[in-house]
Amino acid sequence: xxxxxxxxxxxxxxxxxxxxxxxxxxxxxxxxxxxxxxxxxxxxxxxxxxxxxxxxxxxxxxxxxxxxxxxxxxxxxxxxxxxxxxxxxxxxxxxxxxxxxxxxxxxxxxxxxxxxxxxxxxxxxxxxxxxxxxxxxxxxxxxxxxxxxxxxxxxxxxxxxxxxxxxxxxxxxxxxxxxxxxxxxxxxxxxxxxxxxxxxxxxxxxxxxxxxxxxxxxxxxxxxxxxxxxxxxxxxxxxxxxxxxxxxxxxxx
Length: 253
Hints:
By secondary structure, the protein is an alpha/beta fold. 39% of the residues lie in helices and 13% in strands. It is globular.
């Protein structure tokens, strides 16, 4: 499996606190079947602003240990949505995933940003492929999951968190991600791991649940096949999203 979203680089955001935690999580990842990890520290203007070169310096301090563990490492960012996203990448302040066309970014949890369409347009206009992180955690997606369809049709892809599948973030998020997964609205899964002895520990249970929910072939597509296309900087084939009937989800006011 390939982890496309995690916070294992120590002392750069709210993830690993030190190198020891980083190594522990790499060992945990290997034990549950991960072979490749894209490291995606937060980049949030005026808050998490460690530039790409500084992050690479940190990665270099544990790169060989990761290789010895059996994990291949790649660099990227989870960028907080901003209309400056292209400038951040061009100025090497933030990175696409493994310097590919794929850009992972997150949105505000409570309210959809007014400039989301502009951000997506800028990425597509500059030949990038937008990946929006963990849509199931956003209130406005929980209220109307079908809003993802119009963005998928524009060329946006979506990455859900493994932990959402077993309710780590609560039942509403669990039910939302199940609907998104079974209606072809999710294209990648990532751990979004921040700490040792958390999500990697739960991966066997999560994979079992995924296999029951979407089948082993689809599970492999979201955990290995599509993530490999990111590393290879190649297009992915996606299934047509299906509209979720309103009787299958609840509007949370």
